[in-house]
Amino acid sequence: MEMRGLRLKAIVLLILFVLLVLCSTFDTCNARRSTRHWRARRSSSSSLAQKKGKAKGKGGSHHHGGGGTPKQKPKPDIAYPPSSQVSSLFNVLDFGAKGDGMTDDTKAFQAAWAASCKVEASTMVVPSGSVFLVGPISFSGPYCQPNIIFQLDGKIIAPTSPKAWGSGLLQWLEFTKLRGITIRGNGTIEGQGSVWWTNTQFEDDPALRFYGSTNVTVTGITIQNSPQCHLKFDNCESVLVYNMTVSSPGNSLNTDGIHLQNSRGVTIHHTELGCGDDCISIQTGCSNVYIHNVNCGPGHGISIGGLGRDNTKACVSNITVQYINMHDTMNGVRIKTWQGGSGSVQNIRFSNIQVSEVQTPIVIDQFYCDRSTCKNQTSAVALSGINYENIRGTYTVKPVHFACSDSIPCSDISLTQVDLKPLQERYHMYDPFCWKTYGELYTPTIPPIYCLESGKPTSNRILSDHDSC
Ligand SMILES: *[C@@H]1O[C@H](CO)[C@@H](O)[C@H](O)[C@H]1NC(C)=O
Ligand SMILES: *[C@@H]1O[C@H](CO)[C@@H](O)[C@H](O)[C@H]1NC(C)=O
Ligand SMILES: *[C@@H]1O[C@H](CO)[C@@H](O)[C@H](O)[C@H]1NC(C)=O
Ligand SMILES: *[C@@H]1O[C@H](CO)[C@@H](O)[C@H](O)[C@H]1NC(C)=O
Ligand SMILES: *[C@@H]1O[C@H](CO)[C@@H](O)[C@H](O)[C@H]1NC(C)=O
């Protein structure tokens, strides 16, 4: 019985195989002669392309079994990707990209995107084994179909000539106004930023920027040597970043790792961040942000702010940062605001933070100023409900620095299980510092913190509409 069954199966398989060979030959001879040439190394594409039916749009390549071929089962020996709903693949090589690291492939990327954009849940493929030189480009909705995947297995490099970047540009690779966009793969985005690190004429040129999009996922990839910020989310909702790497030298100027602004519902986890500025920077308009299992360093730590610059209003709430390792960073967890701002920072939790060789692990600075002097002003972004729990390790300058606003002191600051030791006992280190900081120690701390004021600040200003978030 068994044997017969097996032999039968073998025969069926053989017939299927012959049919497949026949029809694929038929397909290649018959149909796509013109621009499309078969590429043997596209293993991942061909396995994804088993879906039947013609792909829409010009770029939809690699489909077997079109036309009059008989109904057939897919090749049994090919593993399906978990999401077999993928309906179309658009490989940049099919749109004229050279991938030699020298030819400008921007137009090919634009064309591949235009094709991907038209098909729901399509995949734009940047294949491994090639290096693509791409200038500033916008992968832009809002008229694209939802749930596009940008499969990055190759390497994308930025032009190094300032001319190629143009003037007044806000980013290099930009994804805007999309519903459901995923960047995944084991590829690299290489900013070639060293020429920029000495030149501060640009405020904010992220290598990869998402704007006004929902359901954004970034995973697997590496972003390195960005001229400035590596990855930025602005006006986004439902963002997931995991298992990815940001890598730039510690002395590269203004190179934030991940920058969040006006974004809600953000989760970042299992990510390696090494750069020359904040590993993660959380700016105004962010709420419900959850960051965990992140390694940070080199860099300036994880920061909320600078908020309230130039008398602006800032609102940040519901931020949780936990299970973080920081090594060789300037700060650990920091909140920084400029004098003169308004609005509030509320309900923040920093827990299970392991620091080593961090200059100042815990920082609140409401006198933040990156110029030589800043005017003293009474208004400030109000800080309350900031919880520190289980912060441990070594520091090199000062364990805790709380400098709160005179007119709007920080309230409801709590510390639990803080255990911070100087890296080298023999050097003079600063003691914990607090100014206008109200809150509670739930457990004794190492070193002891005597400067926290208990209760609520008496001079608490009545918040006006202007301040409410
Ligand atoms: C990256 O992924 C591609 C396609 O999935 C694969 O062919 C390649 O071997 C992978 N490269 C590495 C370095 O893992
Ligand atoms: C985002 O994804 C969630 C869950 O997959 C889905 O319910 C929601 O409709 C999506 N939102 C948009 C705007 O696509
Ligand atoms: C993380 O990403 C790499 C590619 O950079 C991939 O090979 C690996 O399987 C991913 N791991 C998880 C747990 O997703
Ligand atoms: C912050 O969290 C609280 C409690 O979970 C919730 O009620 C509130 O709506 C959240 N704030 C924002 C801006 O989502
Ligand atoms: C601001 O106030 C501080 C503390 O009162 C004072 O030391 C400093 O000189 C003032 N700065 C300016 C620019 O007025």
UniProtKB/TrEMBL annotation:
SMART domains assigned: PbH1
Chief localization: secreted
InterPro entries registered for this protein in UniProt: Glyco_hydro_28 (IPR000743), PbH1 (IPR006626), Pectin_lyas_fold (IPR012334), Pectin_lyase_fold/virulence (IPR011050)
One GO BP annotation of this record: carbohydrate metabolic process
Signal peptide: 1-31
Compositionally biased intervals (Basic residues): 51-65
Entry keyword Phosphoprotein: no
Compartment list: Secreted, Cell wall
Annotated keywords: Cell wall, Cell wall biogenesis/degradation, Glycosidase, Hydrolase, Secreted, Signal
Region annotated Disordered, chain positions: 34-78
Gene3D superfamilies associated with the record: Single-stranded right-handed beta-helix, Pectin lyase-like
GO MF term list: polygalacturonase activity
Family affiliation: Belongs to the glycosyl hydrolase 28 family.
Name of this protein: Polygalacturonase
Organism: Dioscorea zingiberensis
Lineage: Eukaryota, Viridiplantae, Streptophyta, Embryophyta, Tracheophyta
